Amino acid sequence: MIGILNIQFKPIIGDKNANLKIVEKFIDDNSDKKLDLVILPEFFSTGVSHEDFVNSPEDINGGFVISFISDLAKKYKTNIVAGTVIESDNGKLYNTSFVLDRNGSIIGKYRKIHLYNYMGGTEGERITPGNELKVVDFDFGKVGIGVCYDIRYPLHYKNLVKEGAQLIVLPTAWIVPNEIYDNKESLEYTKDMWIALNRTRAFDNMVYTISSNQCGKVNDNISALGSSVVISPTAEVLACADDDNSALYVQLELGIVDYLKSIYPISFID
Fold this sequence. Notes:
The chain is an alpha/beta fold.
């Protein structure tokens, strides 16, 4: 069994130091548990702030933010998928998830491929899309990485599974307009659809899926949905957060994935 800590919180816009302290407290509060992997949300160090994205990106080694996360990985002897930071490389900005092992070393990174450029989204105006899938070989198993809107692309998940992923994690800042967030019926429908999307990706590919989301109001126009989830390969909701700062702790058996692959002739093995 592996121990997973899935962190959800509302970042303080533009205050990297405060947000990193929030992350550290969540990990410290759960340090009495078996921690094999910690997952953080998209834009965990800045919140959803275009100004901060452009004016304070990290360098190709992750800069100050990933250095801090590296220290946490070493201190608590855990692997970490460090949500995403905006990474600057040769004059281009990427929405990048850095992956660290228990020694604090960067063992992989994934640049978000599917940017959100729809229904008012303008991510592609600032960010350059990545072009490579990423499956990381941890000391406990193989983990595929996606970011937020990647979940809308079934082949992204399928291709990660083809490369051996037993678990797919999704750092997320799943944003909705406040007219939806402030309407109880609309919000419940949106949450149901979000959870159904996660369950479908898990069931179609017979892998665990974990989404780590932001939560709470971002500004006068948008809010983060919350509802971070852990889904089993049979689409069971193993854990689901509400819409507040919280951390989901679960223990998973990755051998179930290998067993299911051995008995079901699903198309990803073609």
